């Protein structure tokens, strides 16, 4: 049972607790924010608070009442979590139809029934259309909490029927203080920078990137190795196909993020950005040197390819060929005319 708030959630919690004290709880609440800010944790804390029969002074669940014990055992009949059957897959209409059947029954306890849909943007078209009826024809004492870091992918008909709660990233001092409390090994400031200021994502990045590797600086070491190979391709000391075959063994998501961040930083360096404004401040000098001799139009073209690639990660595309296409375009961009 989660009883303590993440330090950057306090203002958001005050708003949620205000809903309870004012008895103005929205039927639909859309919780948004970047990855790694704890949207799921905050949604569950709100759900537990709504279901708890003896909440604490600040409104958090007590952790001891019958409702809290059922929540702890994942057996509370009035708490429903809707998520994809497999990571990255869609939430299908069959899952929403099952939910609609459950909602025809009254809540079994005297508080609320809480439905969390996470991530809400993964409802396919048919599922979203079916879920819209839940919002349009609400059942007794039922609250919907929708979680997403891609609110633009939600149909406007759903988003417009929900109140929105945006979780902002904390200031750097708050985030660094929290990371230090987690006893994380590694360059915390660089990890936080790579996580775009999201503490939970920075904590995740500190975990082993490859199974069997040690934690700590593993993520940064692999990233540094890949950046060296990226520079070798630019200098034509290595071939894109060879590097793509090597990189194919690594998780695609961080690879694509790294390459995207390097291109963004190159564009920033083209406009003489300060090192502390980069995703990769430790790579400022080589990035600055390259930016001075690259065509800006070509950088934007490669950036567009990387954005398309991010959308392909969950498809059946050949990942090695996908990486090779990016590296070939990067090599071509660095050919002297």
Overview of this structure, please?
This protein has two domains: 7-166, Rossmann fold (3-Layer(aba) Sandwich); 207-333, Up-down Bundle (Zinc Finger, Delta Prime, domain 3). The protein has 15 helices and five strands. The chain has helices at residues 10-21, 39-51, 66-72, 93-103, 125-136, 156-159, 172-181, 188-194, 199-205, 218-234, 240-247, 252-270, 284-291, 296-312, 319-333, and strands at 28-32, 79-82, 113-117, 142-148, 163-166. The chain has a five-stranded parallel β-sheet with strand order 2-3-4-1-5, with helices on both faces. Strand 3 (113-117), helix 5 (125-136) and strand 4 form a beta-alpha-beta unit. The protein starts with 9 loop residues before the first helix and ends with a helix.
CATH class of the largest domain: Alpha Beta
Element pattern in H and E: HEHHEHEHEHEHHHHHHHHH
Largest sheet: 5 strands, parallel
Number of domains: 2
- Percentage beta strand: 5-15%
Any low-confidence stretches, pLDDT <50, length ≥5?
A: none
The CATH superfamily of the largest domain turns out to be: P-loop containing nucleotide triphosphate hydrolases
Record field, number of beta strands = 5
- Oligomeric status of the shown chains? single chain
Q: Strand order within the widest sheet? A: 2-3-4-1-5
State the secondary-structure class: alpha/beta
Radius of gyration (Å): 23 Å
